[in-house]
Amino acid sequence: MIGDRKVLFSGMQATGNLTLGNYLGALKNWVNIADEYLTFFSVVDLHSITVRQDPAELRKRARALLTLYIAAGLDPEKNCIYYQSHVSGHAELAWILNCFTYMGELNRMTQFKDKAAKHADNINAGLFTYPVLMAADILLYQADVVPVGNDQMQHLEITRDIAQRFNAIYGDVFTIPEVYLGKVGARIMSLQDPEKKMSKSDENPNASIYLMDDTDTIIRKFKRAVTDSEAQIVYREEQPGIRNLIDIYVACTKKSVEEVEREFDGKGYGEFKLAVGEAVATELRPLQERVAQLSKDKAYLDGIIKNNAEKAEYYATKTLRKVQKKVGFPERVR
Ligand code: TYM
Q: Per DSSP, what are the bridge partners of residue 152?
């Protein structure tokens, strides 16, 4: 809480090509619920360097992601959209919280295990303490709610544990955040392997829909989506591929699962896949057009970036000063 307003914090990494999973699992929900909260949407570039990045590419992607937040419908006058690296409080609070987090807890993080396996030549300390930085992001703004996809649940749990541990020692310093999972789309799966989540780091481009894919590409990828040989469009455990396509269709059309099952009763997979592809293309086209338009307005974006960094800094500093005082750092002489 800040004053009498509930706070929402969320963020995304500017690494790889953003996928439909990022959009349906996170960004679309952000837009839907933003009005109810005081919001902070960060482009989390500090997190990105836990794996090696090309500097120019990272800068470009970070700006593209910030543009995408706005293009998706977040008004930057009302929502604080900013780069994490522009607010030094994230790193400062992360250091303090590192001292309240146990190695054993971090060792259990599945994302760390996955990423360590994938980047065996660069298992750096930042990758290990990544969840602590994420906790700092959230706690710095006293967030009540954090809308994320299902894969971030474990990180939210550790954030709550760290906050509760800190509060138990120093009093009520941090708001304990709740996770917000959307009703649909919290777990969009790979189009090539429906047991795996759709991920921007997947090596097979046919496994993911990228937000900037054109209509033909989107339709082609859905046509090739791996399903099964049951030949019926029903939402059930044994048909993970079809279930995933139904989830995507539902998220884009706002129809219910039952409506979709009825709509495609007795119809073939080919027809259904085409309909899903078209629904996704219809959803993404306006987004792509707004990205193209906004990207041209450099001065506008620069203004947003500057003003919102200042706004974020203001709130971040409030929490940070409180925490610094609690742990016993000397007060600043004015
Ligand atoms: P990131 O950048 O991997 O993903 C951004 C958001 O997209 C969601 N998401 C998905 N949702 C549904 N289906 C999928 N296949 C899918 N893939 C990704 C993620 O759950 C996430 O909500 N560590 C975070 C970024 C972060 C953050 C934070 C988030 C840093 N600090 C503080 C919330 C609060 C991450 O890497 O997300």
A: none
Q: Hey, what are 202's tokens?
A: 């997947």
Beta bridge partners of 333: none
Check pLDDT > 90 for residue 2.
no
- Which residue CA neighbors atom 14 of ligand 1 most closely? 21
Task: Please state the three-class secondary structure of 79-96 as a single string.
Answer: CEEEEHHHCCHHHHHHHH
On whether the CB atoms of residues 93 and 140 are closer than 8 A, the answer is yes
Ligand 1, atom 9, lies closest to the CA of 22
From residue 307, alpha-carbon distances to 213, 310, 311 in Å are 31, 5, 6
- Measured in Å, residue 62 CA sits from the centre of ligand 1 at 15
Predicted local confidence at residue 3, as pLDDT: 84
| Res 149 pLDDT > 80 | yes
CB of 90 closer than 6 angstroms to any ligand 1 atom: no
17 near 59, Cβ under 8 Å? no
Give the bridge partners for 5, in sequence order. Answer: 2
* C-alpha pair distances (Å), 156 with each of 32, 276, 285: 21, 32, 32
| Best residue for ligand 1 mutational test, from 151, 160, 162 (most atoms within 8 Å of Cβ) | 151
Catalytic residues: 115, 197, 200
Q: In 3D, which of 203, 238, 241, 211 has the Cα closest to residue 223?
A: 241
294 lines ligand 1 (CB under 6 A): no
Q: Report the candidate in 251, 190, 243, 193 with the shortest Cα–Cα distance to residue 19.
A: 190
Give the sign of the dihedral formed by CA 276, CA 72, CA 3, CA 314.
Answer: positive
Across 101-108, average pLDDT: 96
For residue 187, pLDDT over 90 is answered with yes
Distance in Å, CA 311 to ligand 1 centroid: 23
Predicted pLDDT of residue 166: 98
